[in-house]
Automatic annotation (TrEMBL):
Keywords: Oxidoreductase. This is NADP-dependent oxidoreductase domain-containing protein. It comes from the Bacteria. PANTHER family: AFLATOXIN B1 ALDEHYDE REDUCTASE, ALDO-KETO REDUCTASE YAKC [NADP(+)]. One of its GO terms (molecular function) is oxidoreductase activity.
Length: 293
């Protein structure tokens, strides 16, 4: 299964984080727009995550917009020293909730300042350029030179500590690295959707974190009879088995499963304790792949 590991932590920039973090996107209202139905429950999930040892949270100021970052600030400010908040720029939201590309230099600069303001920070620990080419779930080629140079300049100014990419192709990763170092890549990847297998391995060799988005399938839960049956057989939930497979897939994978429910948060975090043999997980991965074909 590539560069496998049972390690509980991995480096993200100059900090070390637990391999299961938390993705905050699902805390906003339906369609990632507006306020959640129950803001107190959202705050409880964020505080519960930190209390359980999460020290890596993924967000964006265009979730809500602003709502997710405001909830993070309300729940967690002043932030624990070891917490790495990773945000992304490259989109904004229309009044109807539509997703609007915001990739011009001025948009990216505004995006960074919006995040600094809503998270109440002087420096953002990690900012991903969310590349807009492609379908939203699958990246496509296109030069990112101007966009990434803009973020590298903001890094030089001291507003960003580390840079990353999201929804990027392998050649966009290389192009970015010719401009400034990156510490993570966040792309669509899970037990069923594995187009990024080669990129996961390339980044592992370079000791760069790979952070799958939609680790549980995103807006529609991973569908696999094999996964459900194997999970049942091992006394796990299918989502736990899907996370355990990702953890075993490569040591540079950091997870950010999203949930608005404390029960799911706890269930997901417990995946770190699963001790199935790598060969068993590898076989399950292959069987799920065969089923998906
Ligand atoms: N860079 C990008 O373009 C991009 C795109 C999408 C997402 N992201 C980031 O990646 C993170 C993860 O993606 P995601 O949240 O969209 O998708 P996900 O983690 O694959 O799945 C989240 C969905 O699964 C449900 N869920 C979570 N834990 C569960 C469990 N134990 N059992 C059953 N259902 C469970 C959640 O519902 P409940 O609320 O009911 O638990 C939610 O609907 C996001 O939060 C966001 O930070 C980035």
């Amino acid at each position: 299964m590539g560069n496998t590991s049972n390690a509980r932590t991995y480096k993200l920039g100059d900090k070390t984080v637990a391999r299961i973090g938390y993705g905050a996107m699902q805390l906003a209202g339906p369609g990632v727009f507006g306020a959640p139905k129950d803001p107190d429950a959202a705050l409880a999930v964020l505080r519960g995550a930190i209390a359980a040892g999460v020290n890596h949270i993924d967000t964006a100021d265009f979730y809500g917009p602003h709502i997710t970052n405001q909830l993070i600030r309300e729940a967690l400010y002043p932030y624990p020293d070891d917490l790495v908040i990773v945000t992304k720029v490259g989109a904004s939201r229309g009044e109807d909730g539509s997703w609007v590309p915001a990739q011009a230099p001025a948009d990216l600069i505004r995006g960074v300042h919006d995040n600094l303001r809503s998270l109440q920070l002087d420096v953002l620990e990690v900012v991903n350029l969310r590349v807009i080419e492609g379908t939203g779930r699958t990246p496509a080629e296109g030069s990112i030179e101007e966009r990434f140079t803009t973020l590298a300049e903001l890094q030089r100014q001291g507003l960003i500590r580390h840079l990353g990419l999201s929804n990027a192709t392998a050649s966009q990763v290389k192009e970015a690295q010719s401009i400034a170092p990156i510490v993570c890549v966040q792309n669509h990847y899970n037990l069923v959707h594995r187009a990024d297998d080669p990129l996961v391995d390339t980044l592992a060799e370079q000791e760069i974190a790979y952070v799958p988005f939609f680790p549980l399938g995103g807006f529609s839960r991973l569908q696999s009879e094999v996964l459900d049956a194997e999970a049942h057989q091992h006394g796990l939930s299918p989502m736990q088995l899907a996370l355990a497979w990702l953890l075993a897939r490569s040591s540079n994978i950091l997870l950010i499963p999203g949930t608005s429910r404390i029960e799911h948060l706890n269930e997901n975090l417990a995946a770190a304790e699963i001790n199935l043999a790598t060969s068993m997980l590898s076989r399950i991965g292959q069987t799920v792949q065969k089923e998906a074909r």
